Amino acid sequence: MSFVYPWFLWALAALAIPIIIHLFHFRRFKTVYFTNVRFLKEVKEQTSARAKVKHLLVLLARMLVLAALVLAFAMPYIPSPGGTVKEGSKDVSIFFDNSFSMAAESEDVRLLEKARTRVQEIVSAYTTEDKIQIITADFEGRDQRLLSKEDALTRLQEVQISHNVKPLSKVLARQKQALSSGKNANKEVYMVSDFQKNITDLEVYNDTTVNLTLVPLQSVQNQNVAIDTAWFQSPVQSLNQPNPLVVKIRNLSTSEIPNVRLSLSIKGQSRPIGTLTIPAQTAVYDTIDVPVLETGWHEAKITITDFPIEFDNDYYFAFNVDEQVDILQIYGTTPNRFVSASFKDNDYFKSTTQSVGKLDYSQFSSYDLIVLDELVNIPSGLASELYGYAKDGGNVVIFPHPEAQLTDYGNLTRTFNANSYAALEKKERKVSFINFEEFIFNDVFEERRNNLKLPVSQSNFKIAKRATSGEEVILRYRDGNTFVGKYRTGKGHLYLSAVPLGIDYSNLVSENGEIFVPMLYKMALSTTSADKIAYTIGKDAVLETEARTSNAEMVYKLKGSQEEFIPEQRNIGTRTILGINNQIKQAGFYNLYLNPEKTLDKFAYNYDRKESYLEFYNSTELGNLVGNQVAIVEGTNTQDFADTITMQSKGTPLWKWCLIIALVFLLVETLLLRVWKV
């Protein structure tokens, strides 16, 4: 047993008062009248013995009354295991977990409401002199201060489910930071949460200056199905094509979940896809054909049916189908007719030819593919511009001139860290390998035939290998030399052909149209290979878009269904970087614009799937994790939770019992004086 105010025990010296009263009050002589003197001696002896017993009992009762009162003022208590009670007011920080997992059911209410009740009971266990912080996973600025008890109860009622999720180590650090600004010496921290394993990164707690109490809540049923992610099989979505989309759906429960309905919404129209049966703790993949009937931006959403965790039932994605793919053919003397002819009958592609001496470098960013058509020399300025263009997402394909200045070509390929051209070899070679796994040819042919007619060259430049080039072979000769190679540069690509375009050097353009034409098509389309169709709230803090203005007074804005804001923005070359700074709170689509009447880009945001994993620590596991110095109070089933918290923070108080004992002995004294007649 310990005392909150042990210095009150000095008042036990007052026990001398009833002793003094006893010595002086009960020694006074009294006159006793008797009718018969012969009985005097006998009565005197009996009365003296009974009076002595009575006086001693009264003395004892008075001393016990006084002792009990002194103990009551000293406030004795039985400390909780590992806890200590300190005198004076307290600074208290309470973490109210309001993340998505708290939407699960606990008995007949959501965990969020159960947590609200528990936090309210914790606040109620403290006095009006104590200062209290209510902090949530949102980490709002207003929650970084200590409130009065009344204000804390008001703030508590405002807490709602949030997409935010924070590791508990960061939460604890934030709580200690707030308590450090408090004036009271006594510091106490509470965490009311379901303690998901993927966010509970607490370690053994050894801080003796701040008492830590964990209040774990558990749902009745840990069952959840979530759409994990989705992606197109092809990085480019084509008009009037099925455009296969792969969807990853995960069952995060310990039992099989049948009949999960899957549907797709696009352009405001929803259509069912089918139902899935997902084994326990397993992810399944389904492929959906996304129809594209028009160019421009498309908003789409995949949906499943699942309850009660619903935030991860929708997956938003957005993609753009360009109205036109622009190709620039740069020639030296005369443009090769086969390049422009490849795009002549397809309105989706627009081919432009320009002489190397009349180039406008500032227009490079408007093209999806630049073809170097047999240039003898490559000016250094052009090489530099091509490198910057490719880094920003452009694609460059080189068909060398038979009399190419290899020094110029070497300077260009070194800039791209690509393999370089060696001398022209006049030797017939046949292509024997086509890379069907690479983007260029992965979906060109319905059947990958072994008897496919492949190009033959009469002369070719041998491509010298560079160890660090990272070449990806598109077409290869029988002897292992590269016919067409691909090199990644920034967000774009460089393609090197070992042969000129002329029909005197190969039959690529004259007899292999089924190879040449789709190869140019896919080279042009690969410019969008780095585009993302979806982003994650809280993770993807930076967006990137094409720079469309240099006017400092014109700013980009992002607008969702319920919010609009100005992101941080800075121009880097031909790109604009947009900083979100946690301003996106709700999943959905966000339009980027300079003028509200014209959408420049469209971004789809989804909630972080971290909260989908319903694996939690129970009380025993938490105890093993944080050590014996931390108090753990079961928050789901405890009936008298307020009393439990009071006992936890202040120990088991005994002062009420002391008052009861004082009253009992005061009653005993009264009975002795009034009832016991001597």
What can you tell me about this protein's structure?
The protein has 678 residues and is of the alpha/beta class. The protein has 5 domains: 98 residues, no CATH class; 169 residues, Rossmann fold; 90 residues, Immunoglobulins (Immunoglobulin-like); 204 residues, Rossmann fold, CATH 3.40.50; 72 residues. Helices cover 24% and strands 29% of the residues. The chain has 12 helices and 36 strands. The strands form 9 sheets. The protein has a 9-stranded mixed beta sheet, sandwiched between helices. Strands 6-3-7-8-35 form a 5-stranded parallel beta sheet, with helices on both faces. A 5-stranded mixed beta sheet has the order 27-34-33-29-30, with no helix packed on it. A hairpin with a 4-residue loop joins β24 and β25. It starts with a strand and ends with a helix.
Percentage of residues in DSSP E strands: 25-35%
What share of residues is helical?
10-25%
Oligomeric assembly? single chain
Largest sheet: 9 strands, mixed
- The helix-and-strand class reads alpha/beta
Q: Which CATH first-tier class of the largest domain would you pick?
A: Alpha Beta
Give me the CATH fold name of the largest domain. Answer: Rossmann fold
CATH architecture assignment name of the largest domain = 3-Layer(aba) Sandwich
Radius of gyration: 42 Å
The structural domain count equals 5
Shape: elongated
Total helices: the number is: 12
Mean pLDDT: 85
Low confidence ranges:
none
Distance between the termini: 41 Å
Strand order of the largest sheet: 17-16-18-19-26-25-24-21-22
